[in-house]
């Protein structure tokens, strides 16, 4: 099975603390981050998480695939993580963009909510431009 069916089953689903907006080396060295990293210990989706986020390519900050990342570099790892989980195949998806929606489509996935909204807004802009130009 491909796609992102597993996301709703991941133990971190909906917890925005895994991807802090203000990530710095100091902010990631907190007891909270260590506690969150432990959530990944028994997660069966670490490989899929790496494949979806592509943390090295996307210069990710936060917790992904059983690792704590800062600017796409591993800063810490949960004890059950294995190096084989780190393969980043496929292309990076810039979520929240029309290009991101197309990338989801090319992978045969349902676009994430951010990419769906970006594609909807882009389509609305194109329709408005057509109306404004009378075509």
Structure description:
It is a single chain. The protein is mainly alpha-helical and 135 residues long. It folds into 2 domains: 1-86, no CATH class; 93-135. The chain is built from 5 helices and 3 strands, in the order H-H-H-E-E-E-H-H. The chain has helices spanning 25-28, 31-39, 46-53, 98-106, 113-133, and strands at residues 62-64, 67-70, 73-77. Strands 1-2-3 form a 3-stranded antiparallel β-sheet. Strand 1 (62-64) and strand 2 (67-70) form a beta hairpin. Helix 4 packs across helix 5 (113-133). The longest helix has 21 residues, at 113-133. The mean pLDDT is 86.
Number-wise, the strands total 3
Average pLDDT number: 86
Helix content: 25-40%
Overall form? elongated
SS-based class: mainly alpha
Strand order of the largest sheet: 1-2-3
Tell me the domain tally: 2
Please outline the major beta sheet: 3 strands, antiparallel
**Unreliable stretches:** none
Order of helices and strands: HHHEEEHH
Secondary structure tally, helices: 5
Radius of gyration: 17 Å
Distance between the termini: 43 Å
Assess the beta-strand content as a share of residues: 5-15%
């Amino acid at each position: 099975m491909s796609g992102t069916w597993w996301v709703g089953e991941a133990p971190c689903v909906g917890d925005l603390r895994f991807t802090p907006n203000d990530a710095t080396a100091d902010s990631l060295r907190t007891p909270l981050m260590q506690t969150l990293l432990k959530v990944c210990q028994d997660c069966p989706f670490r490989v899929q998480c790496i494949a979806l986020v592509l943390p090295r390519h996307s210069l990710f900050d936060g917790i992904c695939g059983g690792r704590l990342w800062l600017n796409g570099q591993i800063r810490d790892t949960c004890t059950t993580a294995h190096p084989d989980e780190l393969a980043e195949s496929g292309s990076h998806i810039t979520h929240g963009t029309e290009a991101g929606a197309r990338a989801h489509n090319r992978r045969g996935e349902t676009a994430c909510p951010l990419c769906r909204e970006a594609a909807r807004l882009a389509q609305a802009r194109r329709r408005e431009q057509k109306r404004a130009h009378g075509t």
